[in-house]
Amino acid sequence: MDHREMNSVSCANCGKPATTKCSGCLAAPEYQPGDAPTTAYCDSQCQREQWPTHKAQCRILNKRRTLLRIAELLKTTLLAYRECVYDIPLTGVKYEEGILRLLLDPRKIPYRPWQIPFPSDLNISPQHKEAVLATNQCTTAQCLLGPLARYLLAGIKSTFKIAEVNAEPIVPWKIVWLNDSKEESRSFDCAAVTHTILLVWIGGEGWVVDITGCQFGFQEILVPLNTYFKKRVRSISRGPFAYTEHETSDLDVFDCQLALNDTDKKRLKAAHERAGRLHFAKFVKEHFDRYESTRPSEELLSGTSEEFQGKLARFESNLKAHMTSFVDFAFGKERLNWSD
Ligand SMILES: [Zn+2]
Ligand SMILES: [Zn+2]
Fold first, then answer.
1. pLDDT tens-digit map of 124-138
2. Nearest bound ligand to the CA of residue 2
């Protein structure tokens, strides 16, 4: 039960002024307008009496809230990973005429390992930073997060699939390479990429979990499926299909393509990327091996909003510390100890 200010909510059982909110369904997202009301009681007697009636609704709202937390955790994970192992020589970010422009000046960075910490000297808003971290990361995210996502979703009874869509960006992005006179030498924009989303069905409701939508200015990470397709999708390009990817699935495919492996530089870049992904996979495996519950995701995803935010922050800082040890290795500060 939550004992915060009640704002004249009345008891769901007897109608008297309520004093405690049902913690099972508090702050659940709406699927349809008004379908996630706060349920509150005047005392525990009333709560007990009302439970047989409230039970079914409470369970579905609780599942929705868990799904929202899974989405938050996955997005936090991707952005934390990208912040530690960023792979483009970003030298500036400009928001002009409604387009977010990522400026790359390769001459400023003659040689850097490819998996580097995100530049800390860029003066950008938190929203633009998220967008830049997630730019063109749909495939990476889908693979990187596969085992973690399946692990977390196993804790709620659900069906899930992946779909690739042509999105309707709110804030389109453009990657721009600068030349000697600070002009664009070439560019690449978001119209050229498909967007990958996770479709999840729980208790008869269809949802879209959108981890990388922040690259297009999408703020919501959990949206009812119909709403999402009406507002954000121009067309479906592939899917829905089964979500079977793991941390290096895309790299395994790239490894077989000659054009991506015909120089030492390309092979070294691929090796760096693979090492980063495997280092991440190790974190996921070690972290979740510690949870011995039969419903493994429950421990991480349960509790009040404040408790969950605390667990999320700890998860994020542990992941960053883990990935930083990889970056140190990539920079040559540490030797990899194979006997570990
Ligand atoms: Zn009552
Ligand atoms: Zn409830």
1. 999 999 999 999 999
2. 2
